[in-house]
């Protein structure tokens, strides 16, 4: 295995993987998180917010937490009996903790908004130091409450049932096999 190949670490149900601290590593983290969310039957709203949080935190790890020869780690897990999605990104730059309060960069700057986006999307987020030289930046997204129906699919609690309304523009029925569909 070379230094750029991902190393899975997770127990069943969680995603935990070490990746190369580069743009390619951050992109792979987003792709793996997207697949994990699909496997957990995440709703589109949950997946969209979670993937944006993953994108921002992994980009920060690749850009600001990079140490040559060291990886960053992405972890996704459900906590609180499946009511909270926790995203954690650990890198080896404990000396570079995010500072609070967050300040918006000047309008002409192209970067510096990642944690502002995380702050807007996550219900909670923070950073903590681990064993030297690690730090973990984490974000939690509270999942919407169920609407009287159990989740469809897995037991993750990510999919929340809703009563669906009739499609106002249903597709026309298919014609019998071998016949062209009538026009008009």
TrEMBL record:
InterPro entries: Anti-sigma-factor_SerPK, HATPase_C_sf, HATPase_dom. Residues 90-113, 140-184 are annotated as: Disordered. Residues 26-127 form the Histidine kinase/HSP90-like ATPase domain. It comes from the Bacteria. One of its GO terms (molecular function) is protein serine/threonine kinase activity. CDD domains: HATPase_RsbW-like. SUPFAM superfamilies: ATPase domain of HSP90 chaperone/DNA topoisomerase II/histidine kinase. Gene3D superfamilies: Histidine kinase-like ATPase, C-terminal domain. This is Histidine kinase/HSP90-like ATPase domain-containing protein.
């Amino acid at each position: 295995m070379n230094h750029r190949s991902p190393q899975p670490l997770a127990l069943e149900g969680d995603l935990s993987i070490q990746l190369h601290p580069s743009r390619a590593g951050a992109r792979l983290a987003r792709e793996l998180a997207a697949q994990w969310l699909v496997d957990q039957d995440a709703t589109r709203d949950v997946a969209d917010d979670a993937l944006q949080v993953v994108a921002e935190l992994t980009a920060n790890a690749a850009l600001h937490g990079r140490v040559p020869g060291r990886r960053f780690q992405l972890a996704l897990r459900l906590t609180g009996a499946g009511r909270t999605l926790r995203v954690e990104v650990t890198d080896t730059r404990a000396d570079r903790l995010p500072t609070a309060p967050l300040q918006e960069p000047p309008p002409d700057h192209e970067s510096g908004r990642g944690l502002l986006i995380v702050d807007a999307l996550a219900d909670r987020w923070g950073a903590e130091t681990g064993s030297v030289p690690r730090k973990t930046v984490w974000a939690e997204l509270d999942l919407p409450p169920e609407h009287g129906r159990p989740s469809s699919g897995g037991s993750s609690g990510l999919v929340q049932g809703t009563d669906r309304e009739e499609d106002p523009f249903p597709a026309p029925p298919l014609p019998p096999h071998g016949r062209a569909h009538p026009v008009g």
